[in-house]
């Protein structure tokens, strides 16, 4: 998953004569550019030191600590103190529900518009293959989950996964925060506006949606993500008070093992295609990508891994022009590993809560998830935040189920990111085959700002 902060890149005219040519590709190596970039001219003093402090104790360790403390303190905390966290969770989930439609409009609309502007055959083909790969991984995860999880989770059942703030103890304060419009309205609106932006000349409307995206991403970075550990702490505190915690933990461990096994199968399948495309041994190609996989495991960031992914891809025989174009672009739009994780955990939660496993809505969920993942913000937990809307609107997930999805997703975040970036090398190999004899030098790119890596 895709966890470097996604920013709007500076216009090419502002880069100056010494601009790095590698930034000419969409996603430009996943680096932030411009005055707001860390360490840039307009960066706040001490921002680099703050970034280093955050990296030493990242989101995953904080989530793990929050889960552990929630379970342990749930056994001993008096009700008066537990109600404080119940109150916070109620307010936070209300704010999150208000924000989700805005996240969809703010992220999906400009993403669709940007893919259309100046999108030549190469950009369109890369985006299509990335979406196909992401969707096929989701379908594979759905099929295997429906086949195996009912047996693997047999006996682990929660008749109704109740919201901890509703079922355990009452909050001190309740605040109703209705969204501006519902999730389905937001999805349709985003698609209509995004497609419309591809049909008109770039102007103030496109720039307005790009600024809206920047605002939404900053809200996620500055408010949602920092408060997630506290929200998850309150979630597991409530589950412990409800007596539901051990079923949840058993479900998590079982599903994590299945997800890790599926990522291996997905990578083998992707590189079987890549090996055919390049006329090379697929296992050797996969082995060549190992540094990128290991880097992604350590950074949990597709964007931070772009230089390593690009170099490994070139070692597999992909032309420089193809690798420099496809890898940064796919770091933004190719989230096969993330889709696999979200689909599998969604099915698991539906099973243990007794929700009906209807094939039609599940397939629709996977297809819509592939679209939403293109616009997922590149912040820790950004993919699951973007997916929260389709989880609630299509599968009927409530606040408690979405909270568990967030915790489960982040628990194995780095493995999904590693799967994403390694698959980017396979797509680059396939694009090299499709573009054989027609590519020379650096490919042309749209002349508008691009959203950078995930």
UniProtKB/TrEMBL annotation:
Organism of this sequence: Brachybacterium fresconis
Membrane protein topology class: Multi-pass membrane protein
Alphabetically ordered keywords of this record: Membrane, Transmembrane, Transmembrane helix, Transport
Name the UniProt record assigns to this protein: Na+/H+-dicarboxylate symporter
Membrane-traversing stretches: 59-78, 90-112, 124-149, 180-200, 212-233, 245-273, 384-412
Entries under InterPro entries matching the protein: Na-dicarboxylate_symporter, Na:dicarbo_symporter_sf
Source species, domain of life: Bacteria
Disordered: region residues: 1-48
Subcellular location: Membrane
Main location: membrane
Pfam families xref list: SDF
């Amino acid at each position: 998953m895709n966890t470097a902060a996604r920013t709007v890149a500076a216009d090419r005219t502002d880069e100056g004569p010494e601009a790095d040519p590698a930034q000419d590709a969409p996603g430009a190596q996943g680096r932030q550019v411009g005055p707001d970039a860390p360490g840039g001219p307009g960066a706040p003093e001490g921002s680099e030191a703050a970034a280093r402090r955050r990296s030493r104790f990242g989101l995953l360790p904080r989530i793990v600590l929050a889960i552990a403390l929630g379970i342990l303190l749930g056994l001993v905390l008096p009700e008066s103190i537990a109600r404080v966290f119940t109150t916070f969770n109620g307010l936070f989930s209300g704010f999150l529900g208000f924000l989700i439609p805005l996240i969809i409009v703010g992220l999906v609309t400009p993403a669709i518009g940007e893919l259309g502007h100046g999108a030549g055959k190469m950009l369109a083909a890369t985006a299509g293959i990335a979406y196909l790969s992401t969707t096929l991984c989701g379908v594979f995860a759905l099929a295997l989950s429906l086949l195996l999880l009912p047996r693997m989770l047999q006996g682990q059942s929660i008749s109704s996964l109740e919201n901890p703030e509703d079922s355990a103890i009452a909050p001190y304060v309740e605040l109703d925060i209705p969204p501006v419009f519902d999730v389905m309205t937001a999805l349709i609106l985003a698609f209509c506006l995004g497609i419309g932006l591809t049909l008109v000349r770039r102007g103030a409307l496109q720039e307005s949606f790009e600024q809206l995206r920047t605002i939404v991403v900053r809200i996620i970075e500055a408010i949602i993500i920092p408060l997630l550990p506290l929200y998850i702490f309150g979630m597991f505190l409530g589950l412990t008070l409800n007596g539901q915690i051990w079923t949840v933990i058993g479900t998590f461990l079982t599903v994590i093992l299945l997800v890790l096994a599926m990522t291996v199968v997905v990578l083998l399948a992707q590189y079987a295609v890549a090996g055919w495309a390049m006329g090379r041994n697929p296992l050797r190609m996969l082995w060549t990508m190992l540094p990128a996989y290991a880097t992604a495991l350590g950074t949990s960031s597709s964007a931070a891994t772009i230089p390593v992914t690009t170099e490994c891809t070139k070692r597999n025989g992909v032309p420089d022009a193809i690798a420099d174009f496809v890898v940064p672009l796919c770091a933004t739009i190719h989230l096969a590993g993330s889709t696999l994780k979200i689909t599998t955990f969604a099915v698991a939660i539906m099973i243990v809560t007794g929700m009906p496993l209807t094939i039609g809505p599940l397939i629709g969920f996977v297809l819509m998830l592939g679209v939403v993942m293109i616009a997922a913000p590149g912040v820790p937990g950004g993919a699951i935040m973007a997916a929260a809307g389709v989880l609630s609107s299509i599968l009927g997930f409530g606040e408690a189920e979405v909270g568990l999805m967030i915790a489960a997703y982040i628990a194995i975040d780095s493995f999904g990111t590693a799967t994403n970036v390694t698959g980017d090398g396979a797509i680059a190999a396939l694009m090299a085959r499709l573009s054989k004899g027609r590519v020379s030098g650096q490919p042309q790119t749209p002349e508008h700002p691009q959203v950078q890596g995930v």
